[in-house]
Write a structure and sequence with these properties.
23 helices; globular; tRNA-binding; alpha+beta; binds S-adenosylmethionine; S-adenosyl-L-methionine-dependent methyltransferase; 30 strands
Length: 731
């Protein structure tokens, strides 16, 4: 994507108002796609063999095909993929658009289980957007999570996560055990971090697509990420650092691999775009301020047998192999992993082992070594961003840089990309003393100025008292602690007592079983008052919240929203209802007898109108509705067919029964996606607005607005500016 580092207004990754056309590759002549500096620099680097240069350039000048991924946890994605293959691909085989016959989407051969597709025409892919649960995402951007090989028990960190297309893939892997209708509660977790506060809200928005009690979002500078504490053991007041099994460093970069999409790069590219980022990412000199930079911080936070994936959408070796080499130099206990046999269909080139950085915009001078550069032009050397760390180190041959992967546009009609997989070298078991020293080496470098105070541990919860995340007097200023910057205005997290009366009434109202993890329900206020929404976390996230000052780790979101307060309207008491996004999480704890069964006719009425009157349903369903209390209920629709519409697997949705009408409690977008997928048409606009008149009508509430307007605008901007766009229409 546009790589998200701070940019001038109008740059990649920032709002560009109405100027989107400037970035459309179909609106620029190929003859204008040139930049002599770019050509000279990459030719000098011998980035591709000479006889491939022309096809490399030709690919760079060709619009990028739109690619998409079938999103959702494994079972859902596979089921959807069947529908796409059986129903929609054949339909798309005979589509014409503006008098042009459009080719149908084809699968990306290297993507596991055929869950990603490549549409040779953008317009044809737009047609395929009518599928629900489709993420439009640059093909190469799908790679890093695949090489990370996440499993549900893993602790996972996504250090530079926004807007979150890879975060979504990581969450899906963490939720590999979800079924078609219910969400599992993984024992691991995913922390999605971004230093840009606004962009962290894109991550929260993304996570609503795959609600997870094992998900949290932080807003910190990844290069200075504080250590997250965990209780050392039950009953102990000692804390230890949370280390990660998997860490993704999809770092900010110059983004020149996205030139097929971000055509402004043709005009602006110059070598310093990449030079400036090298130091941001990796320590060049232990004496400098770079010593906590992103990749090195990840190395400090990794478990002994863990794995780091480092990726950029740049093809510049200074931002890629240069960073890896410097990181390996400073942390010799790490090595590059040979992943040449993973994703065998993926065409790739080995990492580079020699390159020549330059700060000369005319690219007329390049030096083999830093020393040669300094002695030839000491003045220039003093005034550039270049340091010795930009050049290949003397021991470059020992680093196996060829194990890095370079993806070039002409290899498989994609963007340009770089991926490296790192792990700690396997060492023989050491005697105790030495082992201890190794563990100490892994400790974070951050100074602990205060003795951390342990919040209440999970096993110390007193049943009737809400338990809160630590903050307040203990909290260091977030800027001080290396946070994302600026003030931090999030509300604290307070776990409810499992005997909280509102929670208990909610559980009994929804007839949840005794297995429901009621001690893992939190609210977002310091008092622990159930004011509006309740969130569910898994045990690990709960431990983290209780053991850490939430302002120090700038915790922006945790767990998934499951219940929300619903005003009942005149004369009817407010009550809590299950959110559409929370239903799959709560479903395994729902008494099956409390679930009503519907059919395709009922589903059609509920989907295609907004406030259907109870009288508009057939007699048998009316009779069921008559027996229900006012408020929230769950309806299950088994697979079925109706006038060409079909439902391939059980669908469970929350409804709200008011005095005279029934509403489907899913937000407008999700409802529309559901309508498109099952009935092949959008919800008619009139149906979205018309409310029934008469007694009890006011009790039919509005379903939750899924995305705040501002977040929606940001997603739109992300879509326009980056190849890693997620346009999931989930339900
Ligand atoms: C390449 S983008 C990440 C794309 C993302 N992984 C995805 O797949 O959607 C880089 C992100 O890094 C963030 N960023 C930049 N500097 C950072 C830092 N020091 N710490 C954490 N995040 C940072 C930017 O705000 C941006 O969202």
């Amino acid at each position: 994507m546009g790589r998200g580092r701070p940019r001038k207004k109008g740059g990649r990754g920032e709002g560009r108002g109405g100027k989107k056309d400037e970035y459309r590759t179909d609106l620029i002549e190929k003859s204008d796609m040139k930049n002599e500096r770019f050509f000279a620099y990459y030719k000098a680097q011998k980035i591709v063999p000479e006889d491939e240069w022309e096809s490399f350039l030709e690919a760079l000048r060709t619009p990028l095909p739109t690619t998409f991924r079938v999103a959702g946890s494994r079972q859902i994605a596979q089921s959807l993929n069947e529908t796409i293959k059986d129903v929609h691909v054949p339909q798309l085989s005979d589509v014409t658009f503006e008098d042009q016959k459009l080719p149908p989407p084809v699968q990306l051969s290297w993507y596991p289980d055929g869950l990603a597709g490549n549409s040779t025409s953008q317009k044809s892919a737009q047609k395929s957007r009518f599928e629900g649960n489709i993420s439009r995402q640059e093909a190469v951007s799908m790679l890093p999570p695949l090489f990370l090989e996440v499993e549900p028990h893993h602790t996972v960190m996504d250090m530079c996560a926004a807007p979150g297309s890879k975060t979504a893939q990581l969450l899906e892997a963490l939720h590999a055990q979800d079924t078609l209708t219910s969400t599992s509660i993984p024992s691991g977790l995913l922390v999605a971090n971004d230093s840009d506060y606004k962009r962290t809200h894109l991550l929260i928005h993304q996570s609503a697509r795959l609600p997870s009690p094992a998900f949290m979002v932080t807003n910190l500078d990844a290069s200075n990420y504080p250590s997250i504490k965990l209780p050392a053991g039950s009953g102990s007041n000692r804390k230890e650092q949370l280390l990660f099994d998997r860490i993704l460093c999809d770092v900010p970069c110059s983004g020149d691999g996205t030139i097929r999409k971000n055509i402004g790069i043709w005009k602006s590219w110059q070598p310093n775009d990449g030079n400036g980022l090298h130091g941001n990412i990796v320590k060049l000199d232990p004496q400098t301020d770079y010593n906590c930079a992103i990749l090195q911080r990840a190395m400090k936070m990794l478990k002994p047998n863990g794995r780091i994936v480092y990726s950029t959408c740049s093809i510049n070796p200074v931002e890629n192999e240069g960073v890896i080499a410097a990181a390996l130099e400073s942390s010799p206990e790490f090595q590059l992993v040979d992943v040449s046999s993973s994703l065998p269909e993926l065409k790739r080139r080995p990492g580079m082992t020699s390159w020549r950085p330059t700060a000369d915009k005319s690219i007329s001078t390049m030096y083999e070594t830093y020393e040669a550069f300094v002695s030839a032009d000491p003045q220039a050397a003093a005034s550039t961003k270049l340091t010795a760390g930009h050049w290949p180190p003397a021991n470059v041959d020992e680093l196996n840089l060829d194990r890095c992967m370079r993806i070039y546009p002409h290899l498989q009609d994609s963007g340009g990309f770089f991926v490296a997989v790192l792990e700690r070298k396997h060492v023989e078991a050491k005697p105790n003393r030495e082992r201890k020293r190794t563990a100490e080496n892994m400790e974070p470098s951050e100074p602990e100025t205060k003795k951390p105070r342990l919040g209440s541990e999970s096993d110390a919860i007193t049943p009737d008292v809400p338990v809160q995340s630590t903050s307040g007097a203990d909290a260091k200023s977030t800027t001080e602690s290396g946070g994302g910057g600026g003030s931090f205005k999030e509300m604290p997290y307070t776990f409810l007592s499992p005997r909280d009366p509102t929670l208990l009434s909610c559980i009994s109202r929804l007839r949840l079983t005794s297995e429901f993890p009621s001690s893992n329900v939190l609210v977002r206020n310091p008092e622990g008052d159930v004011v509006r929404s309740m969130y569910l976390t898994n045990d690990l996230i709960k431990q983290i919240i209780l053991a850490n000052d939430f302002t120090k780790i700038r915790l922006t979101a945790a767990g998934t929203k499951v219940f929300t307060k619903q005003e009942g309207g005149k004369g009817i008491e407010a009550q809590y209802r299950i959110l559409g996004e929370g239903l799959p999480v709560v479903l395994p704890y729902t008494n099956p007898q409390s679930i009503i069964t519907g059919d395709m006719n009922i589903l059609k009425t509920l989907v295609l109108s907004h406030y259907p009157l109870c009288t508009s349903f057939e007699e048998s369903f009316r009779a069921v509705l008559d027996t229900l209390e006012l408020g929230c209920h769950i309806v299950k629709f088994p697979p079925g067919e109706l006038d060409g519409a079909s439902l391939s697997h059980d669908l469970l949705v929350p409804i709200w029964k008011s005095g005279v009408s029934v509403s489907l409690m899913v937000d407008k977008k999700a409802k529309n996606a559901m309508s498109l997928r099952i009935f092949g048409k959008e919800v008619p606009p009139s149906a979205r607005e018309k409310k029934p008149k008469g007694a009890g009508a006011e009790a039919a509430p509005e379903p939750e607005a899924e995305v705040e307007a501002e977040e929606e605008a940001m997603m739109d901007d992300a879509e326009a500016t980056t190849p890693e766009v997620v346009v999931v229409q989930a339900f």
